[in-house]
């Protein structure tokens, strides 16, 4: 083992000869410091890190995973998995996010930079023991010291690089379904949004837009005039977002396939033939995304669609998902044939059944193909968790070559820490269950801790039929997630905002409009988090360190000023909320609502009607909103409206930029620094504008600690 010091709080330990995942961007200097002393190292066939947990310890992190914000009590396996049934017994989802933070007697963070399987047993086998099992002993481990979990997270975010920033329009509402099947159906959906006056910025193209599910092709029968269609929809205010899958169909004459074969761009099997696995189109090959040349080739294929006017993509099935291989199919068929004449009993019947279920995403298959990484042949199993990461890196690098200074929308299903540099993620195939909404709420801060900022779930739930109340309550939470998309599976009930009754349409419309009115706040908070390497969502304990805040799992902070206490239960007309300090409750049912109420510190029950959204504004903080519009680009920021809850002094930094390019990285953005100070019976406001030419007027509603409202206006024009 070698140890390095990256800075005085971060130590790197290298075991063996690890694969460079390119997650960490900094190198350290050699040093003997044994910070790893917190954990006991146990070296056998695998490497184990063991930490004795104190009763008071909270364990944060692990990004996209089941269960609580506090991960104690369960076991989590980092092994990217295509599993759409997210019941509590599942140990892996689509991402591998090996960052964990211990907050208690000791305080430290630990990042296991291994693209192979890593298991985090957080007091599951032994109640007071955290055991991290690392299968591949060639690994880099990073230990991070800090006084508070938030400091530790921020130090980690500093070493993993800048997060992806989407175009500003991607903060608008987005409508998806597997699948809107043809031009007419999509036009009807778009027209319905316009007719109902519901804001929407994007409509999704799921697998049926392709010709026989072949990447970078168009199904000409259903989309005969694709380019014109894309452009007409854009004129109406909607961007079209096509899906791209990891598997390339094996078909003579299909260009992507032919080029891949000719240039050896696909993963290979033991015999050095292209590895075959079946996904949507039937038999496919997987591009070897760990290979630079393949990445460059595949990434530039996105140009076929950008040339047709496309400005955003979602990368899917990139764990990679496998339906079956020739091997698993043959085995299952043989078992079926062998069973034909047998009297199947409990054991043999279930054996047979398992043969079929285990055809998909089978470990034996993952162990049977290879990558060529700079001439070195590596078994897939060893690098499984960075396959989707590299597919998305390929897309991002391709798009960068296609239009270097343009921000594209890009997000992926599978991920590994470090992929946040290239795209966002969505949380995969959830179900239309209330428990998934609560899981969604808990997952958001954990994902931010791992660097992923552009995140969101399938609002309303993907699998199974949704219902109007679930769609409403889910929309009322997702309106705060950077990626705000309603998506549902083939064969399920429609769940667009207008798919139910008039009341549901009106309530969801108002929630979506509040989202648009809040874009000045949401975008400012997102961009400040991206630039300063900070969190957008966090557990309330990251700001309030009282004992009760450390226990709260169903309220989260959103940006610097808001505490969310979403409704996630059927028929709920309210909920209990814990307030670590006095806060201002704004419960809008439309973006112009003015029903402010000061809620005193402590445990409170609040009524929340179906149409209301409980937004708590923290003490000495403010939020900024504007007029809603049908698209993000149509929002006029001429007037900002501030709601502030001020005891003595509050500050806010409003951020804006062109929303389209990376010029903000060169300092081309504007800010308005707002300060409100209580002076005797009134409030003094100071506004410092740095380069914002759009905002002409700021209207203030300042609510004091007694609930008295003061209204003021400041004009920014000279
Ligand atoms: C996968 C995706 C889902 C998509 C479906 C069809 O299940 O996760 O979002 O709709 O494939 O492409």
TrEMBL record:
The DUF5110 domain, residue ranges: 640-692
Ranges for domain Glycoside hydrolase family 31 TIM barrel: 164-524
Coiled coil: none
Residue ranges occupied by any Glycoside hydrolase family 31 N-terminal domain in the UniProt entry: 43-121
Domain Glycosyl hydrolase family 31 C-terminal stretches: 538-623
Keywords: Glycosidase, Hydrolase
A Pfam family it matches: DUF5110
GO molecular function, one term: hydrolase activity
InterPro entries: DUF5110 (IPR033403), Gal_mutarotase_sf_dom (IPR011013), GH (IPR017853), Glyco_hydro_31_AS (IPR030458), Glyco_hydro_31_C (IPR048395), Glyco_hydro_31_N_dom (IPR025887), Glyco_hydro_31_TIM (IPR000322)
Protein family per UniProt: Belongs to the glycosyl hydrolase 31 family.
Listed name of the protein: Glycoside hydrolase family 31 protein
Protein's organism: Clostridium oceanicum
């Amino acid at each position: 083992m070698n140890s390095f010091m990256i800075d005085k709080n971060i130590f790197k330990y290298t075991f063996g000869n690890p694969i460079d995942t390119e997650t960490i961007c900094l190198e350290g200097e050699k040093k003997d410091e044994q910070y790893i002393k917190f954990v006991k190292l146990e070296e056998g066939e695998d490497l184990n890190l063991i930490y004795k947990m104190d009763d008071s310890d909270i364990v944060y992190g692990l990004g996209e995973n089941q269960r609580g914000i506090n991960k104690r009590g369960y076991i989590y396996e980092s092994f990217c998995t295509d599993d759409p049934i997210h019941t509590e017994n599942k140990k892996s989802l689509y991402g591998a996010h090996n960052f964990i933070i211990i907050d208690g007697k000791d305080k430290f963070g630990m990042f296991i930079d291994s693209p192979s399987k890593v298991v985090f047993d957080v007091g599951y086998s032994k109640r007071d023991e955290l055991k991290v099992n690392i299968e591949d002993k060639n690994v880099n481990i990073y230990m991070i010291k800090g006084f508070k979990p938030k400091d530790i997270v921020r130090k980690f975010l500093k070493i993993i690089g800048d997060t992806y920033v989407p175009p500003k329009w991607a903060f608008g509402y987005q409508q998806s379904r597997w699948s809107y099947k043809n031009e007419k159906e999509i036009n009807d959906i778009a027209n319905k949004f316009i007719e109902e006056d519901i804001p929407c910025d994007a409509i999704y193209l799921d697998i049926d837009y392709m010709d026989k599910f072949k990447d970078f092709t168009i199904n000409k029968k259903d989309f005969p005039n694709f380019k014109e269609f894309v452009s007409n929809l854009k004129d109406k205010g909607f961007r079209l977002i096509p899906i791209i899958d990891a598997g390339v169909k094996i078909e003579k004459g299909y260009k992507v396939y032919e080029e891949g074969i000719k240039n050896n761009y696909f993963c290979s099997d033991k015999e050095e033939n292209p590895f075959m696995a079946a996904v949507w189109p039937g038999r496919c090959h997987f591009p070897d995304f760990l290979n630079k040349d393949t990445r460059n080739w595949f990434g530039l294929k996105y140009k076929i669609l950008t040339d047709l006017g496309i400005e955003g993509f979602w990368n899917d099935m990139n764990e990679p998902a496998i339906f079956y291989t020739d091997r698993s199919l043959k085995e299952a068929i043989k078992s079926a044939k062998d069973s034909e004449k047998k009297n199947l009993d409990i054991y043999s019947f279930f054996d047979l059944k398992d043969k079929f279920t285990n055809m998909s995403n089978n470990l034996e298959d993952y162990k049977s193909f290879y990558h060529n990484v700079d001439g070195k042949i590596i078994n897939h199993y060893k690098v499984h968790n960075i396959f989707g990461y590299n597919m998305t890196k390929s897309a991002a690098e391709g798009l960068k070559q296609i239009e270097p200074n343009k921000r594209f929308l890009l997000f992926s299903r599978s991920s590994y820490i470090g992929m946040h540099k290239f795209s966002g993620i969505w949380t995969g195939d959830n179900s239309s269950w209330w428990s998934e909404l609560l899981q969604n709420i808990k997952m958001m801060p954990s994902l931010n801790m791992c660097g992923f900022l552009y995140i969101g779930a399938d609002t309303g739930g993907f699998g199974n039929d949704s219902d109007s109340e679930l769609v409403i309550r889910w929309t009322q939470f997702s309106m705060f997630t950077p990626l705000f998309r309603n998506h549902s599976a083939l064969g399920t009930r429609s769940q667009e905002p207008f798919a139910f009754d008039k009341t549901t349409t009106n309530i969801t419309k108002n929630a979506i409009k509040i989202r648009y009115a809040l874009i000045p706040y949401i975008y400012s908070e997102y961009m400040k988090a991206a630039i300063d390497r900070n969190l957008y969502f966090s557990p309330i304990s990251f700001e309030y360190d009282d004992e009760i805040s450390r226990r709260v799992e169903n309220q989260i902070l959103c940006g610097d000023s808001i505490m969310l206490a979403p409704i996630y239960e059927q028929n709920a007309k309210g909920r209990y909320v814990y307030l670590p300090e006095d806060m201002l409750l704004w419960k809008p049912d439309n973006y112009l609502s003015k029903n402010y109420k000061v809620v005193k510190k402590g445990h409170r029950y609040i009524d929340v009607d179906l149409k209301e959204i409980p937004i708590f504004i923290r003490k000495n903080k403010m939020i900024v909103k504007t007029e809603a519009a049908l698209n993000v680009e149509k929002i006029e920021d001429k007037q900002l409206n501030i709601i502030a809850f001020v005891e003595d002094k509050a500050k806010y930094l409003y951020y804006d930029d062109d929303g389209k390019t990376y010029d903000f990285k060169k300092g081309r953005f504007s800010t308005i620094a707002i300060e409100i100070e209580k002076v005797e019976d009134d409030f003094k406001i100071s506004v410092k504008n740095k380069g914002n030419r759009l905002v002409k007027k700021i209207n203030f509603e300042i609510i004091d600690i007694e609930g008295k409202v003061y209204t003021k206006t400041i004009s920014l024009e000279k």
